[in-house]
């Protein structure tokens, strides 16, 4: 991990992007204080995880879900997957009517 001032990162952004892909995150500072981090996601799943981790809306939904589970309103694993299957079937009713192939 490297620490670099914002002015330097602005002047040499391409070099810092390449560097974070090989050497890891770059902490960007302004007036000596960390203000951002430049990092290269490993893949699309990593990028999605990073974005969701910083999403206030997603974090709020996650907190509500955890509270609901703690209060006993959660589904068992079996009930969860049953609900998923039913929802998928509701979205694709033609799948039930499709002829099976020999």
Report on this structure.
This protein has 102 residues and is α+β, with helices and mostly antiparallel strands. The protein has a domain at 1-40: 3-Layer(aba) Sandwich (YefM-like fold), CATH 3.40.1620. Helix content is 60%, strand content 15%. The protein has six helices and three strands. It has helices at 6-11, 13-23, 44-53, 56-70, 77-91, 94-97; strands spanning 2-5, 26-30, 33-38. Strands 1-2-3 form a three-stranded mixed beta sheet. Strand 2 (26-30) and strand 3 (33-38) form a beta hairpin. The longest helix has 15 residues, at 56-70. It is elongated, with a radius of gyration of 23 Å. The N and C termini lie far apart (58 Å). The mean pLDDT is 89.
Question: What labels would you give this structure?
Answer:
single chain; about 100 residues; alpha+beta; YefM-like fold; 3-stranded mixed β-sheet; 6 helices; about 60% helix; elongated
Report Rg: 23 Å
Strand order of the largest sheet: 1-2-3
Annotated CATH architecture of the domain at 1-40 = 3-Layer(aba) Sandwich
What is the CATH topology descriptor of the domain at 1-40?
YefM-like fold
- Please report the total strand number as a whole number: 3
Task: Please estimate the helix content.
Answer: 55-70%
Query: How much of the residues is beta strand, in percent?
Result: 5-15%
CATH class of the domain at 1-40, anyone?
A: Alpha Beta
Q: How far from one another are the termini? A: 58 Å
Q: Helices and strands: which structural class? A: alpha+beta
CATH superfamily of the domain at 1-40: YefM-like domain
Average pLDDT score? 89
Number of helices: 6
- Outline type: elongated
SSE ordering: EHHEEHHHH
